[in-house]
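Sequence of Peptidase M20 (Anaeromyxobacter paludicola).
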Amino acid sequence: MTSARPARARAATGAAERLSQAIRVRTVSAGDGAAPAEGAFAAFRDLLVASYPRAHETLAREVLGDGALLYAWPGAEPGLEPLLLLAHQDVVPVEAGTEADWSHPPFAGEVAGGFVWGRGALDDKAAVVAIFEAIESLVAEGFAPRRTVLVALGTDEEVGGAGGAAAIARTLRARGVRLAYALDEGLLVTEGILPGLAAPVALVGIAEKGMLTLELSVRAAGGHASMPPRRTAAGILALALARLERRPLPARLRGAGRAMLEALAPHLPGPARLALANLWAFEPLVRAALERRPETAALLRTTVAPTLLQAGVKENVLPATARAVLNVRVLPGESLAGVRRRIEEVVRDARVSLRVLEQGSEPSATSSVRSPGWRHLEGAIRACFPEVVVAPSLVLAAADSRHFRDLAGDVYHFRPWQLRAPDLPRIHGTDERIGVADLDRGVAFFRRLLREELPAAPPPASGGAR
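Predicted 3D structure, token representation.
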């Protein structure tokens, strides 16, 4: 029987090189309805087979939808609900003209200075590699899970997941699969989340904002710019956008955002600890403090951000049309329809038309912080990051797991990477990278998660608290 030592050494010394190879395969999201780069995704599938032969001999693999991968590692007790690990093969493109700004070419996968550099190093090929490094080493040790483990690798997460994760979810739904819980990307270990909090925090997403894309448009008389009317199309649109900025949707300290503050309160210095432990009295002050920073203000409310503005064709011609695209992230507890009505009320101008460009998805339900799944995940985090505080939180972006919500009682969002604030813009940005040591610790996290069985369910809390 193969000893455990060689398998763990392989994870420590080879994971970075295999991530490097994965980055070199340009599995860029197509977007705008274009077909995916089938050759790149086929090459990525082949690379996985070559990199992880034991895993591919042991796990069943299906290619679904537009190249999405569903793996099943059969458990010794088929009656137990499976665990689902989600990651995605696709990456966002590198903005044209910015490749020279990278310290290392974005698709070279260079390993330098203790980091693996390149597009996908954090989002999300490191997770693909870490999951398969863990499985490969456990198979080499002769380990077999008690419950079935499913691994879903989408191909279009960055553009909605309709051709990848959604196809996997439909397949599982048709088979009547019910999941113990699902684990996807979304949050990680970070520092400086609140002033005065010295310890790093492992944030675990227990709810996800909904998403909606709207268009505001105005039609008005065009003509020569030397004779402008009192109100132009561009001016009318600008007034509508200004009203939306002046009257944001209400801020509410509830749900996952409130749960995060309550979990962090014992680890804060005196005055902050007092305020967060007594939100019934200090909530207005806490809310005002959180609203000063965009990253914490977004925990409190549905956000409306103009992201695309279009008007005009020439500097001396009045534009006859002007449009703005709004990216709307909907707080759990609210609905897409209700938020749209609120935006219409704020704009309140018959000259401004509003239409839905992309319906997106409703906000998620809130997953339990008392369930066996939560305790299983928390145990793996604490084993690999003993220095951190574990806290639930809200996921502001969207992930593939939204296609699986009806298949799992609980969906959690966590990646075992420890990033400091200056590194966060690297996700989807220039000089994306992951530390070799961080990657190896991520492999250890997934090994722990797969080796340990879910704990028994706790007795129900009084009042049905989750």
